[in-house]
Amino acid sequence: MDMLLQISIAVIAIAFLVLLYSLIQTLKTLRGTLEEMRVTVGSLRTEVTQISVEVKEAVHNTNAMTLDVRSKLSSLDVLFASVNDLGHALHSFTGAAKESAASVVASIKGEGKKAKPAGEPGLISTVYDGVISTIRVWNKVKNI
Question: How far apart, in whole angstroms, are the C-alpha atoms of residue 73 and residue 79?
Fold first, then answer.
């Protein structure tokens, strides 16, 4: 029985050594992995610092671009106001031209139906008045 006890202790000792060897190999692998992780985290810190600098520059450039676009848009407001004024002036001009044409047509139709009295203006004076009105409207448009 003494021999059986010694063999059991020897087997237990060998099993313990195998277990200890496996544990040491596992710890070496874990240490290598942790070292690799440390290097990776260090490089990530450097890259994050570089990226944050680039992001700050991008934000600064975006702000400058936004201010530039706003200033250019505000200068276009004057142009659009001028176009609006020009549109109103052209509307007035076409209205006056319509009125002149209508009066010319009315006077032409009126001459064909009845004889003109001595004091009433003729076709030529009506056309002349229409041209004068058109020139006045055109001068107003140019002054705007």
Answer: 10
Whether the CB-CB separation of 144 and 92 falls below 8 Å is answered with no
Q: What is the tens place of the pLDDT at every residue in 70-107?
A: 988 888 888 788 888 888 877 877 877 777 777 777 77
- Secondary structure (DSSP) of 105-143: HHHHHHHHHSPPPTTS--HHHHHHHHHHHHHHHHHHHHH
The residue length of the chain stands at: 144
Q: CA of 132: how far to CAs of 1, 44, 63, 96, 125, in Å? A: 141, 82, 55, 11, 10
Question: 0.85 exceeded by the pTM?
Answer: no
Cα dihedral 27, 29, 31, 34 in deg (nearest 10): -130
Strand ranges for the chain from DSSP E: none
Cβ pair 108, 122 in contact under 8 A: no
